[in-house]
Predict the structure.
Amino acid sequence: MADPHDMGKVAGTWFKVLKKRVSASLDTHKGMNMSQNTSPTDATAPNPTPLHVVCPHCHTTNRVALAALGDAPTCGKCHQPLFTGHPLALDEAGFERHVSRSQLPVLVDFWAPWCGPCRQMAPQFEAAAQQLEPHVRLVKVNTEEAQALGAKLGIRSIPTLALFVDGREVARQPGAMGAADIVRWTHKQLGP
């Protein structure tokens, strides 16, 4: 398990990176009503910084103030928690929606049910989700069910982790990893 002190430092650094990205994103969306949010604690905050977060339950895109990510925000449509601490199982359409609409980094585990190393890594990926959320969304894509997506992305071996930021793949790591290694690798890829 990762050292909680290191996690705090990394979360603080990633918070700064997210804040810069959101500011840049807001500059490109002038004229849009970006002051809406779904977290009750944000409603009274002056000038909350919204971040697009896709709901893991109904796949609606929500606006959440960056400072409220850790306050258990809920979806404005289905009222379910936006963060569950568990990886999401997504099909191709769900993958496209989360990667293209979320302003959070998305870490994807491409796997298959017949793959022994994939099954061994599943609890490790689950543990990593508990450590990385709410700053990174973790999802699983079954390459047997989403073969077109696997082919489109050139997934040649499984398990393969791929990290997406702003809708683009920024890093890829084939092979099974432990939870601490997944967390460490993700933080290294996101950088300061």
In short: The helical segments are 4-28, 92-101, 116-132, 147-153, 179-190. The longest strand covers residues 168-174. DSSP finds five helices and seven strands in the chain.
